[in-house]
Write a structure and sequence with these properties.
about 270 residues; alpha+beta
């Protein structure tokens, strides 16, 4: 076995150096993920307040006083109904997968945000009866197109303020990945010291599919579920609670299973 000037095996010194670099790299990744999680977390309160304002909005009272209040605020705090004429309504393909949509444009002049094209469900009842020249009612809130109605048939438009729980889910992914990165940094530093001291080294536990599902997929799936079941702060809190109940035991079970498998084959 080749020895260096200190009497240690050259291979062990190289492994110790590599693990030291790995520890520094994982620590840097952890710091970056921590900063990203902090930024995402700081946006959650604003998103929840935005969603709560939307859920609390009521139809505008079309009086001079209400109109004056809207103009002084510079933005609508109520649900405004805009009546307009359809300029074009036709099926189209959108996105990289050429998804079929039914795009509608209104005839100018139309106040914002109803002046933007909007997409209806191509298989919905409204897309079958809306034609160029038809009179429609578009409900808007601030800069959001809420719904469209024609001939007694209505449809809610996509893109409503309901993304707060997704911010929570993505933040949880960042926080959990931060923890994983710092744990990896600690493990690499520990292996570096043991290599340098010539002591036996515990094998590295891989980051397999089971742990990827726990770390990344679970928070996002739970946030979608919470978004459909609850509103605002309740949905955010339930996202954290349900995720913790699933992710922690599942991750622990995956790590335990892998270590037991390694022991049986050792």
């Amino acid at each position: 076995m080749a020895l260096d000037t200190t009497g240690q095996p050259v291979e062990a010194r190289g492994l110790a150096r590599n693990e030291g670099w790995a520890a520094a790299g994982w620590a840097a990744v952890g710091v970056a993920l921590l900063a990203l999680s902090a930024v995402l977390g700081s946006l959650i309160t604003g998103q929840i307040d935005y969603e709560k304002s939307f859920l609390a909005a009521r139809p505008c009272a079309e009086t001079q006083e209400a109109q004056g209040a809207r103009e002084s605020q510079g933005t609508d705090a109520c649900l405004r109904t805009i009546r307009a004429t359809v300029q074009s309504a036709q099926a189209a393909e959108s996105g990289p997968r050429n998804t079929t949509i039914f795009r509608v444009r209104l005839r100018a002049p139309v106040p914002a945000p109803a002046d933007r094209p909007f997409d209806l469900d191509p298989d919905g009842e409204l897309s079958r009866i809306v034609k160029p020249g038809a009179e429609v009612e578009v409900v808007t809130w601030r800069d959001v197109q809420v719904s469209v109605r024609h001939d007694g048939v209505g449809e809610t438009l996509p893109g409503l303020p309901d993304e707060a729980t997704m911010y929570v889910g993505i933040t949880l992914v960042g926080v959990w990945m931060t923890g994983v990165a710092f744990i990896a940094a600690f493990g690499s530093a520990r292996r570096s010291r043991r290599h340098a001291a010539g002591r036996p080294v515990t094998p590295r536990v891989g980051f397999g599919m089971a742990k990827i599902v726990c770390v990344v997929v679970v928070p996002l799936v739970v946030s979608f579920f919470a978004m459909a079941m609850w509103d605002a702060w309740t949905a955010a809190g339930m996202t954290v609670a349900i995720w913790a109940l699933i992710a922690f035991p599942a991750t622990f079970a995956a790590l335990r299973w892998e270590r037991d498998s390694r022991s049986e084959h050792a």
